């Protein structure tokens, strides 16, 4: 006999529910999210626009849902799938017979492991006890996270204010005796441009320093684009470049696999070994971890393998060709919209669009685009890069008619944003904020600062984010970094719904 449904009187959480009610509730929650298909969400999600890909990935995930990647001796299927994926990535990205790799949960974990490996290599091989990491200011935040977690000092190098590419000479000058790792981007997320990988890698090699290429967002796309006929190849950026010792590439971006799939490649297994963790000094089972995780689901691994096999080299080459042509069409179209300008010369599929008119606020443009059903990612001003909106072009938006629809919406949003006017920030607020010490802010001061930024006491964000972004942009970076976790923490609650 079925157990009757009853509610827990203390937590008021139903102990049982039928399948339809559970799924209906999940669908209701998803209704408030940005769409993950159709190309209108131009950040965070990557859509190939291919029929049946999601269904295949879901079946592959289901087949491996219970498999634990912690112990590959107990689940040899994990090794088989990972070897296949790493071999494919290495072949595509300039690896040789000695190339080794690790499947990770995403770009951040790949970057963290690259930094951890470099720190251990510098300590064991060169005796470096106070390691540094040399980064362009455009390097992804994941490297700053890695430095904070693993105790490295960040040496930030400015980029050219016109091209937003770091100068190789500046990177070379920043390398010192304590440098554990030099990082370049292919491309940088913010502007979609490639750093001078070959020149920087050569300078690092001359000093015996490791060089990592962050190709998380663009590596799969760029490597397949160079296989397409009639398209100029990108500058050399992968493991075939002398001096490049590691490279990260995400499969859940332009590999169009489900989330949780990235590959970190090393020049050889000996270098990779510096980042592994092994422990036998306890009464439990011997532990060997190649990633930051211990127990980990093999479902993303299986889904990634299935999608890679389904799409294949020819499929990815065609998708990359379409994205390349769509990006060129988008950049040209933006150039015809009065008041907008593209930052730098995008060499990949990422476009940063700033204002060429003081009366036009790019954050207001982003708000207007969201009201039209498009999500463009706001990027605050920093280190010579003005406030802008970021667009990631995927295959789902690559049809000419779709790009034209996007451009028409953008022109409409610009007209509305110009009529709305730019967001004004109270100079007195900025002056007051500049005097605050982020390390000594109390709860009352934090609450006041958030209220001035437009964040309500319960954590509710306003419909228009331009005023919030304008305030956060005007504050000193350390104060903004102090407030951002407070904004996010207010979104989470354990009290009654």
From TrEMBL:
Q: Which GO terms describe its molecular function?
A: aromatic-L-amino-acid decarboxylase activity; pyridoxal phosphate binding
Q: Which GO terms describe its biological process?
A: carboxylic acid metabolic process
Origin superkingdom: Bacteria
Q: This protein is called what?
A: Glutamate or tyrosine decarboxylase
TM helices/strands, residue ranges: none
Which InterPro entries does the UniProt record give? GrpII_AminoAcid_Decarb (IPR050477), PyrdxlP-dep_de-COase (IPR002129), PyrdxlP-dep_Trfase (IPR015424), PyrdxlP-dep_Trfase_major (IPR015421), PyrdxlP-dep_Trfase_small (IPR015422)
Where, per the database record, does this protein carry N6-(pyridoxal phosphate)lysine?
253
Protein family: Belongs to the group II decarboxylase family. Sphingosine-1-phosphate lyase subfamily.
């Amino acid at each position: 006999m079925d157990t009757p449904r009853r509610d827990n009187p203390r937590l008021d959480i139903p102990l049982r529910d039928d399948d339809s009610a559970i799924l209906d509730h999940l669908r209701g929650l998803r209704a408030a999210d940005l769409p993950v298909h159709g190309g209108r969400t131009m950040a965070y999600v990557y859509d190939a626009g291919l029929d049946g890909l999601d269904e295949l990935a879901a079946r592959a995930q289901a087949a491996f849902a219970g498999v634990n990647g912690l112990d590959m001796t107990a689940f040899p299927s994990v090794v088989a799938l990972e070897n296949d994926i790493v071999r494919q990535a290495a072949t595509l990205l300039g690896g040789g017979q000695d190339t080794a790799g690790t499947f990770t949960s995403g770009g951040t974990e790949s970057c963290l492991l690259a930094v951890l490996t470099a720190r251990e290599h510098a300590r064991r091989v060169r005796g470096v006890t106070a390691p540094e990491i040399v980064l362009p200011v455009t390097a992804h935040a994941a490297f700053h996270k890695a430095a904070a977690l693993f105790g490295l000092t960040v040496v930030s190098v400015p980029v050219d204010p016109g091209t937003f590419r770091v100068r190789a000479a500046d990177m070379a000058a920043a390398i010192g005796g304590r440098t554990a790792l030099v990082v370049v981007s292919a491309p940088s997320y913010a502007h979609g441009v490639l750093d001078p990988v070959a020149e920087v890698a050569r300078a690092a090699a001359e000093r015996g320093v490791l060089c990592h290429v962050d190709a998380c967002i663009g590596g799969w796309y760029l490597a397949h684009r160079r296989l397409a006929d009639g398209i100029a190849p990108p500058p050399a950026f992968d493991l075939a470049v002398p001096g490049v010792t590691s490279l990260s590439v995400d499969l859940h971006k332009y590999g169009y696999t489900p989330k949780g799939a990235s590959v970190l490649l090393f020049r050889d297994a000996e270098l990779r070994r510096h980042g592994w963790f092994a422990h036998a000094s306890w009464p439990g089972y011997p532990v060997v971890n190649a990633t930051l995780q211990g127990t980990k689901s093999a479902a993303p691994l299986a889904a990634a393998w299935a999608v890679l096999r389904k799409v294949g080299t020819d499929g990815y080459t065609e998708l990359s060709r379409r994205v390349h042509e769509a990006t060129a069409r988008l950049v040209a179209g933006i150039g015809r919209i009065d008041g907008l300008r593209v930052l730098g010369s995008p060499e990949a599929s990422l476009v940063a669009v700033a204002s060429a008119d003081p009366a036009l606020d790019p954050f207001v443009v982003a708000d207007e685009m969201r009201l039209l059903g498009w999500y463009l990612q706001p990027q605050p001003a920093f280190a010579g890069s003005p406030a802008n909106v970021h667009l990631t072009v995927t295959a789902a938006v690559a049809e000419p008619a779709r790009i034209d629809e996007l451009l028409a919406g953008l022109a409409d949003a610009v007209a509305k944003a110009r009529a709305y006017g730019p967001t004004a920030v109270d100079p007195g607020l900025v002056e007051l904020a500049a005097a605050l010490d982020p390390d000594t802010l109390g709860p009352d001061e934090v609450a006041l600062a958030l209220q001035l930024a437009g964040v309500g006491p319960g954590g509710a964000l306003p419909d228009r984010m331009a005023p919030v972004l304008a305030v956060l942009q005007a504050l000193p970076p350390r104060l903004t970094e102090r407030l951002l976790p407070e904004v996010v923490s207010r979104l989470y609650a354990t009290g009654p719904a």
